């Protein structure tokens, strides 16, 4: 019988969301093993009850009471205390989502949920993801900038063609470091904040329209599109971290109240992107619908699994309970590991 281990935390700035996802998963699965990956790199075997007792996970860091068992994740994976582990990845951002953790586990023949390392790396890089899906779905025009000067130049050039642009990290999620700019915007404060982040940025055409997001799930018979969510944003607000996790100026309508042709196209685009990138298990794609046209923005291979996250909302709307979904992900992870092992 496989032993589930929920791996959460990590070194990214999305670790608070990861804690909230882990809480929901641990509660649903009846308190499996839970490993916390501390920001400094150590691995803690934590008490599920202590994890569930942690309040305000979106705003407060989690500090386990037990000392670390292993100094880093690689050593933990090399000295696993169970015979048949399946890691349920409740990680978001950084090494947990960019293919790094997935490669560690693939090399060791360890089962884990979500996409493999190649698809994870491609999807996490927003520019690379667009290149790979551009032949099958419409994408917004964008440029990559790696220095403050490049950000400034790209923003000016994009604003010469478009009345509004969005700037976001090439690799990241949970809408951290998101900026919007128009032709009258003073770009210097934005450039300064991007410079302090010291990460590459996507400077992208802002496509006006309805903000949609579509989850893709595989319960063992192949991937399929979940109901569409529409994000309604009040004037002066954005679907950033506060909007996503505190509902400030935003509303998530599930299922979206949109015409059938738009719903069907949004689901088609999301499924096409999932397949084009070679994603597995589940994903979530963000889109913009302008009239009857649906444009791909980005895809997430480990979207949030918190009680309020988008994919769990879509699963509920589809009549799929979370335990059924999580159990299916565990089976898919084991199946993929066994298939890879048989090829060696």
Walk me through the structure.
By secondary structure, this protein is α+β, with helices and mostly antiparallel strands. The chain has three domains: 3-113, Rossmann fold (3-Layer(aba) Sandwich); 124-137 and 208-325, ATP-grasp fold, B domain (D-amino Acid Aminotransferase, Chain A, domain 1), CATH 3.30.470; 142-205, ATP-grasp fold, A domain (Dna Ligase, domain 1, 2-Layer Sandwich), CATH 3.30.1490. 38% of the residues lie in helices and 24% in strands. It has helices spanning 15-28, 48-52, 73-78, 94-97, 100-108, 117-124, 126-133, 148-161, 187-197, 241-246, 260-276, 310-317, 322-342; strands at 3-9, 33-37, 43-46, 85-89, 111-112, 142-145, 164-169, 179-182, 201-205, 210-218, 223-233, 250-253, 282-290, 293-300. A five-stranded mixed beta sheet has the order 3-2-1-4-5, sandwiched between helices. The chain is globular. The model has no long low-confidence stretch (mean pLDDT 92).
Low-confidence stretches: none
Q: What is the CATH topology of the largest domain?
A: D-amino Acid Aminotransferase, Chain A, domain 1
CATH superfamily of the largest domain: ATP-grasp fold, B domain
Number of domains: 3
Question: What characteristic shape results from the CA principal axes?
Answer: globular
The major β-sheet equals: 5 strands, mixed
**How many beta-strand runs?**
14
Helix content: 25-40%
Distance between the termini: 23 Å
Quickly give the structural class: alpha+beta
Q: Classify the beta-strand content into a percent band.
A: 15-25%
CATH architecture of the largest domain: 2-Layer Sandwich
């Amino acid at each position: 019988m496989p032993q589930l281990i929920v791996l959460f935390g990590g070194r990214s700035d999305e670790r608070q969301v990861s804690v909230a996802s882990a809480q929901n998963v641990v509660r649903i699965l009846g308190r499996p093993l839970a490993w916390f990956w501390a920001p400094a790199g150590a691995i803690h075997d934590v008490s599920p009850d202590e994890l569930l007792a942690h309040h305000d996970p979106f705003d407060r860091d989690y500090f386990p009471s037990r000392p670390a068992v292993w100094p880093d994740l690689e050593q933990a994976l090399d000295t696993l205390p169970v015979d048949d582990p399946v890691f349920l990845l409740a990680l978001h951002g950084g090494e947990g989502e960019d293919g790094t953790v997935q490669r560690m586990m693939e090399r060791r023949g360890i089962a884990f949920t979500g996409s493999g390392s190649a698809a994870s790396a491609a999807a996490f890089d927003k520019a690379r993801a667009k290149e790979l899906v551009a032949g099958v779905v419409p994408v917004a025009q964008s440029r990559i900038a790696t220095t403050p000067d490049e950000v400034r130049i790209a923003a000016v050039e994009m604003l010469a063609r478009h009345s509004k642009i969005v700037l976001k990290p090439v690799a990241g999620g949970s809408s951290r470091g998101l900026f919007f700019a128009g032709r009258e915007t003073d770009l210097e404060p934005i450039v300064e904040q991007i410079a302090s982040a010291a990460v590459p940025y996507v400077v992208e055409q802002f496509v006006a329209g309805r903000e949609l997001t579509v989850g893709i799930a595989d319960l063992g018979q192949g991937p399929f599109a979940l109901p569409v969510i529409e994000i309604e944003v009040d004037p002066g607000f954005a679907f950033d971290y506060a909007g996503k996790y505190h509902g400030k100026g935003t509303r998530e309508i599930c299922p979206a109240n949109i015409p059938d042709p738009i719903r069907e196209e949004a689901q088609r685009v999301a499924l096409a992107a999932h397949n084009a990138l070679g994603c597995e298990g589940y994903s979530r794609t963000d889109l913009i619908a302008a009239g009857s046209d649906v444009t791909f923005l980005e895809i997430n291979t480990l979207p949030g699994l918190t009680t309020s996250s988008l994919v769990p909302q879509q699963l509920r709307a589809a009549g799929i309970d979370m335990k059924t979904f999580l159990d299916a992900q565990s089976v898919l992870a084991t199946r993929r590991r066994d298939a890879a092992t048989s090829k060696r």
